[in-house]
């Protein structure tokens, strides 16, 4: 009976050690992946280019940017503060300009994911 109890404890200790080793490995792997992701964000910041057609004020009446699915009134205010007032401006964004806007909104990938440029081209 004592032999059986000692075997169980030995197996429990071995299982704990294996689990701890896997946990440490996963933690190291996760932090390496996170560091690689930060590099991608920095690379996106380098290739971001300020849109050529930012305005100080609307050219006539400003467009309702909330027509674009994904832009709420708060995001519209942020875009207006950046100098984006018209759908034609959004429709003219290239990849670098879209990235620049995403970084200013602090929402990387949002413009492309929600297809703002395509929507603005269809609406305007």
- Overall pLDDT score: 83
Strand content: under 5%
Helical content stands at 55-70%
Task: Tell me the series of helices and strands, N- to C-terminal.
Answer: HHHHHH
The end-to-end span amounts to 82 Å
Q: What structural class is derived from the secondary structure elements? A: mainly alpha
- For this structure, the quaternary state is single chain
Total strands: the figure is 0
Total domains: 2
Low-pLDDT runs of 5+ residues are 42-46
Please state the CA-atom Rg, rounded to the nearest Å. Answer: 26 Å
Largest sheet: none
| Helix count from the secondary structure assignment | 6
Shape: rod-shaped
Describe this structure in words.
With 124 residues, the chain is mainly alpha-helical. The protein has 2 domains: 1-47; 65-123. Helix content is 69%, strand content 0%. The protein has 6 helices and no strands. It has helices at residues 2-47, 73-82, 87-91, 95-105, 110-114, 116-123. Residues 42-46 have low confidence and may be disordered.
Layout of secondary structure:
Elements: H1 2-47, H2 73-82, H3 87-91, H4 95-105, H5 110-114, H6 116-123
Features:
mainly alpha, 69% helix, 2 domains, 124 residues
Short description:
This protein is mainly alpha-helical and 124 residues long. Helices cover 69% and strands 0% of the residues. Mean pLDDT is 83; it is low at 42-46.
């Amino acid at each position: 009976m004592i032999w059986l109890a000692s075997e169980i404890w030995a197996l429990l200790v071995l299982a704990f050690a294996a689990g701890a080793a896997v946990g440490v490995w996963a933690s190291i792997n996760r932090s390496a992946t996170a560091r690689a992701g930060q590099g991608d964000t920095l690379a996106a910041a380098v290739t971001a280019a300020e849109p050529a057609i930012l305005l100080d004020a609307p050219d006539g009446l400003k467009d309702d940017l909330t027509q674009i699915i994904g832009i709420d009134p708060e995001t519209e205010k942020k875009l207006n503060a950046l100098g984006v007032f018209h759908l034609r401006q959004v429709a003219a964004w290239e990849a670098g300009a879209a990235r620049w806007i995403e970084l200013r909104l602090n929402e990387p990938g949002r413009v492309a994911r929600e297809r703002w440029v395509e929507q603005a081209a269809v609406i305007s």
